[in-house]
Specification:
Elements: H1 2-30, H2 34-49, H3 60-73, E1 78-84, E2 87-94, E3 102-108, E4 128-129, E5 132-134, H4 142-158, E6 166-171, H5 182-188, E7 196-208, E8 214-223, E9 225-234, E10 238-239, H6 248-261, H7 270-279, H8 285-292, H9 294-297, H10 301-308, H11 311-314, E11 320-328, E12 334-335, E13 338-347, H12 353-364, E14 370-376, H13 387-399, E15 405-410, H14 416-420, E16 425-434, H15 436-439, E17 448-450, H16 451-468
Parallel strand pairs: 3-6, 3-7, 7-16, 8-15
Antiparallel strand pairs: 1-2, 2-6, 4-5, 5-17, 7-8, 9-13, 9-14, 10-12, 11-13
Helix pairs in contact: 2-4, 2-16, 4-16, 13-16
Bound molecules: zinc ion (ZN).
Zinc ion is lined by residues 108, 140-141, 174, 202.
Amino acid sequence: MLQMGRGLALSIGVALCLAATVSVSSASARDVDYKTAGEEATKILADYLRIDTTVPPGNEKKGAEFLAGILKQNGIESQILETAPDRACIYARLKGNGKKKAIVLLNHIDVVPANAADWKHPPFSGEIHDGELWGRGALDMKGMGIIELQAMLMIKKSGVTLDRDIIFLGTPDEEVGGVYGAAWFAKNHADLVKDAEFLLNEGFMIDADDNGKAKYWGVNFAEKSPLWLELTAKGQAGHASMPLPDSATNKLVRALSKLQQSGPNFKVLPPVEEYFKNISSTESGDLKDAYANIVEATKDPAKTKLIMGDVLKSSMLKNTVSLTVMKAGYKTNVIPGEATAQLDCRILPGVTKDEVVSWVKKTIDEPSIDIGVIEWEQAEPSKLDTELYESIKAVAKEEAPGVPVVPVLVPWFTDSHWFRELGITAYGFEPVEVDRVHMATMHGVDERIPVKSIEDGVRRMHKILLKCGGVN
Ligand SMILES: [Zn+2]
């Protein structure tokens, strides 16, 4: 909050000498035909959806070249950065006056596979039916990419100069881990974003009820860290006609059973408490009470049961363990000498890998079982007392009075963490309403976005960029 205070004092100071310029550019920046801008974005998105960037193999370079073409038509030069054959990032920058640090608009070009036979309309057709634009990537996340692009183009066209540069960055390979995408970019071209303070990416959106009405604007400020473990038990091999109580398989099953029976250890982080308090009004009955006072609720067995009914929201309250892979044996009548199990643990911010490994060790209480780490990505949260967060809140107040903006901690991870590691404040937030039905189409069948959402998204993104760029 201290930061906001200082920023405000500074802008009042410069307003005195720049009053004329500021008021002229503010007026022209805000004098925008949002309806036309939305229609243009819908057309661009339809063309973009027709480019098949299914990963594997990706072929995202075609998508990057398409975006480069649109940028060029609007007078913005871009760079295509090849990460592998036929795979590329696109990077472009719209200059501001340099008073403040840059904001990155991040999006991924690749999409997950779609089996056309299962879809009502072809996944790469970009067709509009009943007011919705169909196609793989409409929501995840070519739609958001074009919303970002169009908002940037609108600022370019209006001729207004923001206090920050806007960086447009499209990456390949996100859906399979980002090794040839964001990870590659962060490793090889961190210099291109070294002056960036903020980044907007996918990661959460405006949660809507079944009628499409907004419940809250959720801003993903943090993601859980994935920690994948492999447990290996060894024991004497033998003939199955003579059971061995301490065989590898028996030891492993006993250990896993102890893990399964260990109840959830809740840990309510302050922003998560704020999240539940804010969304409690969108629920009713006992759940409303539980969410309103989540710390107390996690100590009450009846309320705990209720909370655990929502697998997404409850995952924000604890470290989780999912047993995913088990391997042992090759023949029914042979007791194998080795058995392994893999665990996908998702860890809250502030908890270390070593703490979790020690907890697993203590819980299974079987010193002979080896615990190996397969994967670990420490995901640090972004702070919330920032100008970008305040800008989102200001736009929400204008666009959807009474609908709260809340910080969300999500159990999945996106490309944002590569940039959080570079010291950039990154939020996962798409300014469009998404209800349960549409949410299920992401990575599922019949992915589509309402044309109205594209228009709303472009308008809101444009307003957020203006506010964060010093135009009020
Ligand atoms: Zn995505």
